[in-house]
Design goal:
By secondary structure, this protein is mostly beta strands. The protein contains no helices and twelve strands. The chain has two domains: about 60 residues, SH3 type barrels, CATH 2.30.30; about 30 residues, no CATH class. The chain is about 0% helix and about 50% strand. A hairpin with an 8-residue loop joins strand 5 and strand 6. The chain starts with a strand and ends with a strand.
Length: about 90
């Protein structure tokens, strides 16, 4: 789960659906939704549809699993593996 910290959708929370590392962008559920006019084809019936566009990663922050607040992420070595953890609560993030 992430929260938007800047832009038109500031304050909205959502689940990350897709990450585009080459462009430093991510598609987040319910964030940056736009209307697109579609022509009927074999795959869709046409009309005005809502599509979710990507958001730059710098405008997103991970939500702490315990407190539910935005938090920074750190990395540390646990049992020979590098894991991500929340800087706010210290909890390991999957």
């Amino acid at each position: 789960m992430v929260i938007v910290i800047a832009g038109a959708d500031k304050g909205k929370e959502g689940k990350v659906l897709e990450v585009i590392p080459a462009k430093n962008r991510a598609v987040v559920e319910g964030v940056n939704v736009r209307k697109k006019h579609m022509k009927p084809s074999e795959n869709n019936e046409g009309g005005i549809q809502d599509i979710t566009l990507s958001v730059h990663i710098s405008n997103l922050m991970v939500v702490d699993p315990i407190t539910g607040e935005p938090t920074r992420i750190g990395r540390k070595l646990v049992d020979g593996k590098i894991v991500r953890y929340s800087k706010k609560s210290g909890e390991i993030i999957k």
